[in-house]
Amino acid sequence: YILMAEPDHLIVKPIPNLSRDGRAAAFPFFYIEPKKYEKVLRKFFPEKEGPITNIDPIGNSPVIIEKESLSRIAPTWMNISLAMKKDPEADKAFGWVLEMYAYAVSSALHGVGNILHKDFMIQPPWDLEIGDSFIIHYTYGCDYDMKGKLTYGKIGEWRFDKRSYENKPPPRNLPLPPNGVPQSVVTLVKMVNEATASIPNWESYAAE
Prior knowledge:
Layout: E1 2-4, E2 9-11, E3 24-26, H1 38-41, E4 63-65, H2 67-86, H3 88-94, H4 98-109, E5 114-116, E6 121-122, E7 135-137, E8 142-144, E9 158-160, H5 183-198, H6 202-205
Helix pairs in contact: 2-4
GO cellular component, one term: membrane
Membrane topology: Single-pass membrane protein
Subcellular location: Membrane
């Protein structure tokens, strides 16, 4: 089995093998909408392959999958990604999630179903509690005023946004969020601080 994850995934606790009976385990993304884009997707998933609902609302990550299944999906995933990118309609429709759609289509073409686990990961600041989740995905910026109120879309008095560190890593000892900020965001920053404190010579990476 293979776990596909990303650099902006923080593993909160050990992840069990959630895959079962030849089906992969995956996280359902609300913005992957095969039904909405059926007309475009039919270029890559013809009607003879079955209903559009065979395409799960997933990307390739986080996913737990049998190695053999991934070995079948991977070449198709690459080829469909390239084909979608070369297709102006698909490229415009899917944008930065194009490879996610390509993976979902490829899984369906090879008959690899997915068990959808909403608790696979959380995405602060929208998910407030960690609950039973295994991963924190720090994809969205977290902006708050000093009273702990979310100011999404406006740079907050306190903020953590990975885009602030595109040119260099974050420094050690990031300030913790103010009182009232959700547990998910507090845990995220504490885990980043724990990691940077544990990596030797981190200051040299994060230097001006």
